[in-house]
Design goal:
It comes from Geodermatophilus aquaeductus. InterPro entries: DUF3017 (IPR021385). The protein contains six helices and no strands. The protein has 99 residues and is mostly helical. It has one domain. It is elongated. The N and C termini lie far apart (67 Å).
């Protein structure tokens, strides 16, 4: 006799596990914003930019059933918007002259 899948046995736990990629991205963004708040703005923005690039990569490689709320639009649009914004933010943080 086979066990029913996790989403039938424990739907709340399955829903939480599905959001782990989003949680990882949000934690990285929070760390970056914390760095900005303690006046390490260049490093903080770089961390936020790299978190967005990571979100784009997660959206690219994970199947729809595992990506959770990182899937908002179609896969190509999500990847281009998240990764493009992350690259632009990272480049901007590196190009702006320091004080």
């Amino acid at each position: 006799m086979t066990r029913p899948p996790l989403y039938l046995r424990r739907p709340f736990l399955a829903g939480l596990l599905r959001q782990l990629p989003l949680l990882a991205v949000l934690v990285a963004v929070a760390v970056g914003l914390g760095m900005v708040a303690i006046e390490h703005w260049r490093r903080g923005l770089l961390v936020v930019g790299l978190a967005l690039v990571g979100a784009g990569l997660l959206r690219l490689v994970l199947p729809v059933r595992r990506v959770g709320f990182l899937a908002v639009r179609s896969r190509p649009v999500d990847v281009v918007l998240m990764a493009g914004t992350g690259v632009a933010l990272s480049v901007l943080a590196l190009v702006v002259p320091g004080s």
